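2024-03-11 09:14:02 INFO queue: dequeued item GNAT family N-acetyltransferase, len=288
2024-03-11 09:14:02 INFO validating residues
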Amino acid sequence: MPTPSLASLPIRRLTLRDLNACADLSEDRGWPREEHKWGLLLTAGKGYGIDDPGGGLVAACVVTEYGPREQPALAAVGMVLVAGRHARRGVGRRLMRHIVSAMGATPLTLHATSCGRPLYEELGFKVIGRAEMLRGRFVPTGDRPEVATRAATAEDLPEVARLDEEVFGADRTPIVTRLPAFADHLRVAEENGRIIGYAAAWPNMETHVVGPLIARDTTTAEALLASLAARTDRPLRTDIDVRHEELLSWAKAHGLASVTSNAVMAYGITELPGDRNRRFAPVTVAAA
Ligand SMILES: CC(C)(COP(=O)(O)OP(=O)(O)OC[C@H]1O[C@@H](n2cnc3c(N)ncnc32)[C@H](O)[C@@H]1OP(=O)(O)O)[C@@H](O)C(=O)NCCC(=O)NCCS
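2024-03-11 09:14:37 INFO prediction written
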């Protein structure tokens, strides 16, 4: 039987059953397997992929939609991967064109690696910002945090979801409702009985990723980050919007180091919705 051409292989929706094949694909491109993250994205978002007749996946990506189901306000694209053996043969372009057309009028956003950026630019995505990836063991200074934090309880979830929607600019219920199970720690910052910020730390390979990180101001963001760091022995990773210079300097003074920075890109909008002053870090760069 002749080998079918790459261009004729169908693009299909991925499910949680594809988790292992997705992790294999990550590994194929030298990325960590990140099964826990794939699990979140394949359930909270929609996976798209192409089966390899020889086994495994030729390509994959995930799209997480936010806002009303019938007309999402925003969709985040992530984990765009093409198996190394099929690279540079137009598969990435075909998969991304499929996503752009499947999402119709919904504005799109993504964090682009330098490898993916030329393709997104060709499709009409524009750079609208940058996020700096920080990693390392947090070194506490022993100062008493100026803002009180505590573990979130089930009763906090409606208020957390309301604050998240206000700051993110779209309803992120599919992510927020999964955080208590997905994250190892979910904490809120409070002032006079009102929640003024929240953050999660979730396990990813040997690190704990801090995100989302939403806070009224830098001091609140620092208190949340420090309180999460105090509850893990693992190195932290977080991706902070470069406009939050104060938080970046503070984190670097506490042991985190810059690994790289990714371009934040958008299609169909020139700025993300919501309040960027209170939005410090995404849940993951793959889901915004
Ligand atoms: C980025 C990626 C998905 C592209 O998939 P692909 O199927 O190899 O790309 P295509 O063949 O469709 O190429 C489309 C265009 O992207 C650009 N491009 C793709 N790979 C590139 C590379 N290694 N360096 C520079 N430009 C590249 C080129 O402009 C290319 O067009 P051309 O071949 O006509 O010059 C793939 O390289 C990959 O999986 N990379 C590792 C994971 C990653 O970084 N993903 C992006 C996350 S944001």
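2024-03-11 09:14:37 INFO annotate: Residues 6-132 form a domain with the Aminopeptidase fold (CATH 3.40.630.30).
2024-03-11 09:14:38 INFO item closed
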